[in-house]
Design a protein that fits this description.
The complex is a heterodimer of chains A (153) and B (153).
Chain A (H helix, E strand, L loop, with lengths): L2 H33 L2 H36 L7 H34 L5 H30 L4
Helix pairs in contact in A: 1-2, 1-4, 2-3, 3-4
Chain B lengths: L2 H32 L4 H35 L7 H35 L4 H30 L4
Helix pairs in contact in B: 1-2, 1-4, 2-3, 2-4, 3-4
Classes of the chains: A mainly alpha (153), B mainly alpha (153).
Chain lengths: 153, 153
Amino acid sequence: MSRYELWKYLHIVAAMVWVGGATVLQVLNLKAAGSGDPAERARIGGWSQWLGQSVFMPASIVVLVVGVVMVLDGPWEFSDPWIGLGLIGIVVTVVIGAVFITPTGKRLNEAMATRGPQDPVSQQLARRVTLLARFNLLLLVLLVFDMVVKPGT
Amino acid sequence: MDGYDIVKFIHILAAVIWVGAGLMLTIISLRAGRSTDPTEIVKLGRDAGWLGTRFFVPASLTTLIFGIITVLVGEWSFGDAWIIIGLAGFAISFIIGAGFLGPQSEKIGELADEHGETHPLVVQHVKKVLGVTRVDQLIILAVVLDMVVKPGT
């Protein structure tokens, strides 16, 4: 196994944790919402905040850093269109996660604890977090498409 | 972009979702296992059982079917060493899933309903299932390595 292949493996496994993890979290969110059980929504909501900071953020950094190393170590150029698109996409998703989803998730957990899950403020924050997370997931799927198809090559 | 790119994208996206979701549940289980609340890990076990036939089986079968189509429409052969290893790894994982993880995950709900979520028998059963899940994930990660490195090419 070459050094480049090792980078590629790390890049792909980190992307799997990020994209696959975000997908299963959305599925469990849908299940919790469908159950009508506020405690269930709060349980999954609690995971979301912890996972955002402890798993998704580190995984996205590994994807980005190792991806950059792969360009430096492999047959690619930063001027390749698919790499430019990929870098822009990663920056956008990380910013959405750090600036919008994580703080809104914190406010949601606080609102759940102080006002209760049925309060209109909690409900509105829950809808906002879900919408943002789904938009981010869509961007991630488009990023995977860009990385697989490599438009412009 | 041609037909090969599309089937390859679907194959990789399904694999990303399948493997990443499994890794995410393992990460959550490590946290739940350290929780002072024993119901945390049992609830996660119930989630895993619910996801089995609704999420993991469809994602893994999509990975397999589109992997086979990728070989048929691409420049690969079923005699290639890395494809044989990949199919063998998938078969082992499928047998573990269908023969053990599926039935035993369903049993979590039955045991929890019968004895209660805090009963030591239920907690022990969940830990056994999650232990086998980790072995299964190591096999799948080895298959991902095989797909990335493509030994024999």
